Amino acid sequence: MIPLTSDTFLVDNSMLEFITTCPYLAYQSIVRRRRPAGDSPPLRFGAFIHNALAYRYANEHDSELDHPIERRMLDILSDNFRATPCELEGWRSYDNAVKVIRAYNTFYPKEDFFVAENVATHAPYVEQPFAVDTHQIIRGRRIIYTGKIDLKVVFPDHTKYTLDHKTSSVLGDTFWSDQQMTGQHRGYVWADRECTGEECTGYIVNALGCKESLANAVFDENLGQLIPGLTNSGRASKATPVEFARQRFFTAVPPGQIDEWYENMLAQVDMFLYCVEKNSFPRHTRHCIYKYGPCQFYNVCSLPKESRENALMSGAYAENTWTPLY
Q: Could you report the per-residue pLDDT of 296-318, keeping only the tens digit for each?
């Protein structure tokens, strides 16, 4: 699927992050359709855990988590890791993903919410892709907002929230401050409102903090808990191998937050399409190094201008065919 044509622009959260970080980064990814040939170990590890969680919430039907469901979750992990082996990815392995899922199911054996129903299909509202018309034409292009909502939940007081799973090696105040401000979650609440005609109270971030110390941790069958392993000196480690936390964010009060996101998103799209119109994509070099490492196109941008095209089309990069719709 080509997101940018002469008359349509299918924009998603990842594209908006590229656009607001650096127009040249957005150009390489959206216009040139290039991406690093190798997958990111953290993203792939998180995606596999994501797939296992999706199975749980699509099938538990508000009942106690039973062993067949967990076994199937672990089978999904096995299938994912077997299909795309991670031999060079250190602690982000199948065995450690199993520890995360078993610990998660122990920590959350039964939820205090119900999984919402998809009003169109009557299936559980899990991993719901969407493509929503913004009803706006910007610089001759119809703007369609796309994405995939991990989960929509309903509490006993009838309040509804979109829920997004986040795997990260670092939780804490900075993580939660980022989740409060990022546009992704408000965008999903907006998309759900457009599709269902009702606005959620807000969104929930379901965080799974996965640490390198998972490699030495052991799942104790008797306690049903993940126990930290031993240090090199043989002492019990004080490191926390995995941490689970959730936080609700309210978007219905104060009102207008979702509409503000919508207007802001359209302004960001207009800025990018202006660059497309002018065929000029400024480089925001302040963002060449992120907090977690270099930009994915650092090895292109750091070269002399005449060498960048060859680098971009080399085996280090591949066609970017990713879409949230599949």
A: 999 999 999 999 999 999 999 99
Q: Within a 10 A sphere around the Cβ of 235, how many other Cβ atoms?
A: 8
pTM for the model stands at 0.92
* Closest residue by Cα to residue 189 from 131, 252, 117: 252
pLDDT band, very low/low/confident/very high, at 278 (cuts 50, 70, 90): very high
Architecture of domain 41-253: Alpha-Beta Complex (3.90)
- Give the C-alpha distances (Å, rounded to integers) separating 105 from 2, 26, 74, 185: 39, 38, 11, 24
The gap between the terminal CA atoms of the chain, to the nearest Å, is 10
- Secondary structure (DSSP) of 9-52: EEE-HHHHHHHHH-HHHHIIIIIS-EEESSPPHHHHHHHHHHHH
Radius of gyration for the alpha carbons in the chain, expressed in angstroms and rounded? 21
Task: List residues bridging with 133 in a β-sheet.
Answer: 144
- DSSP characters for 211-240? -GGGGG-EEETTTTEEE--B-TTSSBP---
Distance CA 179, CA 165 (A): 11
Positive/negative CA dihedral, 228, 78, 128, 19:
positive
Q: Domain boundaries in the chain?
A: 8-38+267-318, 41-253
Angle, alpha carbons 86-325-113 (nearest 5°): 85
Count other C-beta atoms under 10 Å from residue 238's C-beta.
8
Q: What is the pLDDT of residue 166?
A: 97
User: Rounded to an integer, what distance in angstroms lies between the CA atom of residue 156 and that of residue 141?
Assistant: 43
Of the candidate ranges 120-134, 169-183, 217-231, the one whose mean pLDDT is the lowest: 217-231
Task: Give 244's strand partners.
Answer: 208
- The pairing of strands 218-220 and 225-227 is antiparallel
Burial class (CB in 10 A: 0-12, 13-18, 19+), 175: middle
Query: Which residues, 6+ apart, have CB-to-CB distance to 239 below 8 Å?
Result: 211, 213, 228
